[in-house]
Design brief:
2 copies of one chain form a homodimer. Helices cover 29% and strands 28% of the residues of chain A. Chain A has 301 residues and is α+β, with helices and mostly antiparallel strands. In chain A, strand 12 and strand 13 form a beta hairpin. Chains A and B meet through helix 1, strand 3, strand 4, helix 3 and strand 5 of A and helix 1, strand 3, strand 4, helix 3 and strand 5 of B.
Chain lengths: 301, 301
Amino acid sequence: MRERELLRHIYERSADLAGEGVIRVGPGDDCAVIRDSAGASLLLTVDQLVAGRHFDPERTPIDLVARKAIARSVSDIAAMAGTPICALATGAIPDCYAHADELFDRMATLARAFGCPLIGGDIAGADGPMVLTCTIVGVCRTTRGPVLRADARPGDLVCVTGRLGGSLESGRHLTFEPRVAEAVALSESLADRLGAMMDLSDGLGIDASRLAAASGVRLEIEAGRVPRHEGVADWRRAASDGEDYELLFTVRDRAGVERLELPRGTPLSVIGRVTEGAGCVIIDERGHEHDGADLGWDHGA
Amino acid sequence: MRERELLRHIYERSADLAGEGVIRVGPGDDCAVIRDSAGASLLLTVDQLVAGRHFDPERTPIDLVARKAIARSVSDIAAMAGTPICALATGAIPDCYAHADELFDRMATLARAFGCPLIGGDIAGADGPMVLTCTIVGVCRTTRGPVLRADARPGDLVCVTGRLGGSLESGRHLTFEPRVAEAVALSESLADRLGAMMDLSDGLGIDASRLAAASGVRLEIEAGRVPRHEGVADWRRAASDGEDYELLFTVRDRAGVERLELPRGTPLSVIGRVTEGAGCVIIDERGHEHDGADLGWDHGA
């Protein structure tokens, strides 16, 4: 099963949903967006954490399982420049697992620390690997409103927060800090000069290709400008490792970006530009173009 | 693992959440309730459907798997007298399962038919039984607002919609109609004379005990008045079979109830009364009292 291909089918069938009733943005972005009774935007996202796929059930401390379950969904809220306000969690838990109470206790504590207390959920026994889900509701407190994947325009600069690569080997996939404060700061400082945004979960190359497709533009990224974590051998690893949970975004004003200071001293790098066309290419130091769609994970493919 | 006991621990630890920030009702009721930016109530619920626990993966048509995944959460919205407006779904799907696309297609179609289009979700591969979740957002369109489990008072009548028992054997657990229209009609007709309400998922006895505990009252149910589906042998089966997804509610005005006609001709029965005290008893025709807490499922116990 190709998960992303399956999701693409589902998104295509739901393409007519946006604008129907309370729905502003349907499936396919980092969050769905609905209108509340006053017309304000509410963000909704859900993500799964499957033992053996997203964490090693033998070796991962309960604390970090709980953290990743919550933080992945918080990162989706950040990707829209939203702020999480509450969460629901489910667990399908193997009958032999003795720490379910501790796990949910940790999830509740961490969710509250991320600003989205756990206000509901469900627990069921299951004869298989643990499957956790976390649904988060978020709001947009900035005037810019939710930042979509579809708003990149030719002429924009392509930027990324933090550094990329080596997330699985280093354990950062369990401990990353969702970029909520950074996204809100970008949205407040840049307002309409902030173009499209998403969080990087499957690798810069493939994720940037998705942003390009959503916006109907082409992204040109310079390999030499992709910021790498220490120990990440080359740009190819940085662009394809996945699970970075950094923000990829586009900006309409170079001067604005270069002056920006992000919260917590988080680095900000300009890595490329948006042009007319389609797809994402990463251009190496010899000038060779590499197709972004080949760099990253297409889960299950 | 005793799921309900575990959930009870979680609820107890979250008891201070109600009133914090946007939270009106935290964990423990059929839905959580938050305030939107205009102060209106939004309902949130999530439920899981686990292959081998909630349906037979060998025999259940895809259509009915999809239906139950959505309808269980819709029933939670009905239990608060809400109306569902949108949904998110996840699937942890065995790698060998060839019908994931069809399953999600059916879930999307059914969710839309229930008034809550699927606007987001996630799919992951898993080496175990299929685990589906459905998160639903609902609104309260009636002036009565969300109907909680905690609002039964001594002197109320205890009522139930439809008939009970035999849901698993008959297959009704796959085809039941969530009581959204009935709940809205009750809420509109009765307004403040409607007391507490919940949907019956684990069996009348145990669920009524939970309503009694939430309200700090005692429920006395007359066995002979419990409405049974055809083929359900006795009151004990009707009170303990579970998965009825009918509404259990209390009312402050006998005359009002007896005049009520529910949508779709759904039956409405007065089955008992609320008194001072604690717990739920079901009184048989000889006058013997049976503890409701012993009648029903405590999953995994």
